[in-house]
Every structure is written in structure tokens, then in C-alpha cells.
Amino acid sequence: MGRLLLALSLVSAAVASAAVSETAWTPETYPNPMVDVTKCGRGVASWICDPDKILSSEAANVVEGLIKKIQAGSPPYVLAPCGNIGMRGFQVAVALARRMQESSDPAGYAERFARALHDSWGVGDAACDNGVVFFLSILDRQLFISSGAGTGKLLSFDVLGDIIADVRPALKDQRYDDAVERAVVDIGLALAGRPVEPEAGGSGSGWDDWVAFGLFASTAGGLAWWAARTDSRKRRRYQDRHATWESRHATRMGPYAADQPRSGPCQAHRAICQPRCTAALLEVSWNFQ
């Protein structure tokens, strides 16, 4: 009887695992991390939703720490003016999926997906629309960054291009923990007006420090550790990689490569565009030869 129960448990676990891996998400079926805390994998309300368990538990904790520090405006991140409510930190949300519902236009669907989550989750303060949603669909090979009008010029086409360039190597190597951590760090630094430093041949020592800050700053003595460590190092000089990134990858970026708004809800009339449309709209395929 014991062996039978064990066998049934193993079968049930296998079926559950298969069900998770085969879920084809839509914006309507994708869980909300502020409400569906169990489905999103965090167990508490947060700005991370990972129903397919793309991230390890450790990486999810790191990303959670980074998101909280960005919103709190803790150094190296900053607060910014937000309408008539004073200074506020930027809100960053992360949505990960193994696959989306099948579409003849995966890039366009990823865009609609990310922007739908941005609106339905309410990412960003209403007074200044300062939210950012990082959306990644693994099997569809789509990455989309949706940002509100309150991010201003901080998340420009060039800056988003550098963020994409930074995470591409990790995505290509299926180092998803690394890719998501890097993306959130880069977004936070960009929103603080700091340079984004694309990866060049592996993990840079400077970037490792930013992630370590996200992991340890909430613990006792974490801020002191961060200050001592960063004071002992000089930040690497920022090298503008956009020209190199554009020449190598523009053909893969399709309509997003040039400084042109994507057709559809956001066309040429950027001045009257909806807030979600004012940011650069990017997608990337990393499964290249």
C-alpha cells in the first residue's frame, strides 16, 4: 500500500509539473502577484509573478529586494517628483512565463500582454505613472519592457537597447536568474539616471555589487556593508554600446530598432499617446545562432 501511495504521489507530481509547463498564458489568465500570491510563487503580495517557476527561490528573493530598494529610493536608486504628492520611488514589476498563448505575431502579443498587465496590476503611482513592467516569455523568446509616462526620458530607446544588450548573453545561455536580476538592476540604475553597462564577456564585478546590495541591504548591517564595499571600488567607466548593439542586432529587432513608434495604438502622434505608449517599445529574440 505504501508503494502504491508513493507511486500515485509521483504520478500526481509529474502531472502537476506537466500542467505548469504546458500552460499557455493570456493576459486574462495570468495571475496578479498582489492577489494570487500562491500562483505567482511568492506566497505574499509582491511585484513578482513567476507561475512557471522560471526563477530559483534565491534569485526571486534577490529580485524582490531590488524592487523594494528601487521603490524606496534607497541608494544607488532615487526618488523622483510625482505630481502633487511629492517624491516617490519608481515601481518595477516582473512577469515571467514559459509560454504565451499561440499567436501569429508573438512580438505584438508580448507587447499587448505586458501593457495589459501594466494596466490591470496598476504598476506605478497614479499621480505620475512611474511604473515599469518587465515581461519575459521563455519558449516564445520574447522580452518586452513596458513603462509609464513618468519615466520620462530616463528609459529612452538607447537605454532600453543597452538593457536588452546586457541580458541577451544570459538569455542565450538560459541563465534566467542572471538575466532577470540584471534587467531589474539595469532598470533601477537607468531610472536613477545612472549608466547601464552591458555585459562584455561575462559578469562584471560592478554588476555583482548591485545585485548583492539587493540581497543584503534589507538585513542588519546591510547598508554599512554596501557603503564599505562600494567605497573601495571605482565604478567602471560607461562605454556607449548602443552603436555596436544597433549594428549587430537591429535586423533582429524589426520595427523596434529605429526610433519609430510601433504601429497600432501608438503611432506617430506621441504627444497625444496614452501613457503606456510613451516609452520605447522593445522585444528581443535571443535564440539566435
Summed up:
With 289 residues, the protein is α/β, with parallel strands linked by helices. It has helices at 2-22, 57-72, 106-121, 157-172, 176-191, 205-216, 222-231, 242-253; strands at 48-49, 79-81, 87-89, 91-97, 131-137, 142-147.
3D shape: globular
Largest sheet properties: 4 strands, mixed
- How much beta, percentage-wise? 5-15%
What is the number of independent domains?
1
CATH class designation? Alpha Beta
Tell me the CATH topology: Diaminopimelate Epimerase, Chain A, domain 1
Report low-confidence residues grouped into runs of 5 or more: 4-20, 202-289
> How far is the first residue's CA from the last residue's CA?
51 Å
User: Could you tell me the radius of gyration in angstroms?
Assistant: 19 Å
User: Percent helix among the residues?
Assistant: 40-55%
The class by helix and strand makeup works out as alpha/beta
Strand order of the largest sheet: 1-4-5-6
CATH-defined architecture: Roll
